[in-house]
Amino acid sequence: MDFKAVVVDLDGTLCNERDIHPKDERAVKEVLDIGVPVIPATTRMRFSTSLILEQVDIDANPLICNNGARVVGPGWKDSNCLDDWFEAFLDPVIAEELAAYTDERFYQMTTIFKEKKFRKRREGQNDKYMDPITEFVDKNVEALKEGPPISFMMHLGDNGLKGMKDFENHASGLSEKIKIDRHHRSEDFTGLTVYPGGTSKKDALEIVCERMGISMKEVLAIGDDHVDIEMLRSVKKGIAMGNSPDRVKKIAGDVAPGCDENGVAWALKKYVIQ
Questions:
Q1: Which strand ranges, in their side-by-side order, compose the sheet holding 38-40?
Q2: Does domain 92-196 have CATH number 3.30.1240.10?
Q3: Which of the ends of the chain has fewer CB neighbours closer than 10 A, N or C?
Q4: Closest listed residue to residue 61, CA positions, set 199, 201, 211
Q5: Which fold has domain 5-87+199-271?
Q6: What is the pLDDT of residues 34-82, one digit of tens each?
Q7: Predicted TM-score (pTM) of this structure
Q8: Residue ranges covered by each domain of the chain
């Protein structure tokens, strides 16, 4: 098949715990060398994506980050000259209500902006953190002094299943102006993110394709989670990783080996690298 672009998720797809296997990295570079753009599409922020892909010359092409709530044009690794093709933010009133709700229940949450994020400080925690774009606050609502955020993120390890479901139920009944994405590791529910309504990786990819002058039906997409389903369905060939939940595998056009088994390299060699 002839593809005009490849779009690939990061965590659980191209990388595992921030590491890309050399075999997958080589395959991505081969695709770039034959002139096919490779476009990351990730839940991650631009900053952490640039660190993971530091050794891959990939930013001559756009980036879909924040699960589609932000699209950054070519050259996105350079923080001094960012070209935002699209960006969406949570409604300030809804953001304030959700942050206050988490504070009332002592939930741990990350408030995410374009180039900065805030985490609620645990008792006894100092302000030292390995990530230079992270700041700590005593209450989640304090982060909103920065302005309307792109998203809120919660993790199972911080809040437990009961806390996660409580927050999800509260947020889902609050407004149609928000969207809640669940994150999984295989079948396990590990976290959730609240985004502005009407944003997704699929919608972001449509913006990218229009700007690049190509059709969605000329794209190969690879992903591993529920948040990738719309994107996988909308392209010429959508490939699920072997470590994906069953729901993702069922809608995919093909299933690659898992992330730990170099599924991205397998897919690229089968469909793009001739």
A1: 38-40, 5-8, 219-223, 237-240, 254-255
A2: yes
A3: C
A4: 211
A5: Rossmann fold (3.40.50)
A6: 999 999 999 999 999 999 999 899 999 999 999 999 999 999 999 998 9
A7: 0.94
A8: 5-87+199-271, 92-196
